[in-house]
């Protein structure tokens, strides 16, 4: 196994750990169905406090997810910078690390562009992540489900910014 493969494996492990930390902080399933919300509101009066916490958790979801995403990217770029600055590394490893670092920064810029363009289109909140030539998007909307027109609009924005066709639009957050 060469150093490039080792760096990729370490980066993937960091992403997995960050996903676990995010899931722990949210303390709720990633996909909440309407029946879960109805059942939690009908159990007793003490659950009204829990439903308030779930609502604030949803409001914080976008901020926490962005922080986790940015932290992971910064850690990856930092580890790649260490490789680039290491005198014991070969020129090829340094060039590969530099290319990966540039790719990460480009993905970050594209994620922010997509999020800002979707907010400009009228979505209350948007979260975009780009991993391995795949774009994942979560938006906050009033409706329970995105219309076909909204899905096309989101895909058009993503295509115009990233040129990536592998797009996953996750269930909207209310």
Summarize the structure.
The chain contains five helices and three strands; from the N terminus they run H-H-H-H-E-E-H-E.
Low-confidence stretches are 29-55
Number of helices: 5
The CATH first-level class comes to Mainly Alpha
Radius of gyration computed on alpha carbons: 19 Å
Percentage of β-strand residues:
5-15%
Shape: elongated
Tally of domains: 1
CATH fold-level label: Helix Hairpins
Distance between the termini: 45 Å
Strand elements, count = 3
Structural class: mainly alpha
Average pLDDT confidence is: 79
What letter string, H or E per element, gives the SSE order? HHHHEEHE
The helix fraction, in percent, is 55-70%
Q: Give the name of the CATH superfamily.
A: Stage III sporulation protein AH-like
Q: What about the largest sheet?
A: 3 strands, mixed
Main-sheet strand order equals 1-2-3
Explain what you see.
- By secondary structure, the chain is mainly alpha-helical.
- The chain has a single domain (3-169), classed as Helix Hairpins (Orthogonal Bundle).
- It contains 5 helices and 3 strands; from the N terminus they run ααααββαβ.
- It has helices spanning 3-26, 34-42, 47-85, 91-120, 148-162, and strands at 125-131, 134-140, 167-169.
- The protein has a 3-stranded mixed β-sheet with strand order 1-2-3, sandwiched between helices.
- α2 (34-42) crosses α3.
- The protein is elongated, with a radius of gyration of 19 Å.
- The relative contact order is 0.10.
């Amino acid at each position: 196994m060469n150093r490039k493969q080792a760096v990729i494996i370490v980066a993937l492990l960091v992403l997995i750990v960050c996903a676990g930390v995010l899931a722990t902080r949210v303390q709720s399933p990633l996909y909440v169905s309407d029946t879960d919300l109805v059942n939690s509101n009908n159990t007793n009066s003490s659950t009204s406090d829990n439903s308030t916490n779930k609502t604030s958790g949803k409001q914080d979801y976008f901020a926490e997810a962005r922080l986790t995403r940015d932290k992971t990217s910064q850690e990856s770029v930092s580890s790649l910078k260490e490789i680039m600055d290491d005198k014991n590394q070969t020129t090829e490893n340094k060039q590969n690390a530099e290319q990966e670092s540039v790719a990460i920064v480009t993905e970050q810029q594209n994620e922010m562009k997509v999020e800002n363009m979707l907010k400009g289109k009228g979505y209350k909140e948007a979260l975009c992540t780009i991993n391995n030539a795949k774009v994942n998007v979560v938006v906050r909307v009033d409706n329970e489900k995105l219309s076909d027109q909204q899905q096309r609009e989101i895909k058009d924005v993503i295509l115009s910014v990233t040129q990536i066709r592998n797009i996953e639009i996750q269930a909207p957050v209310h």
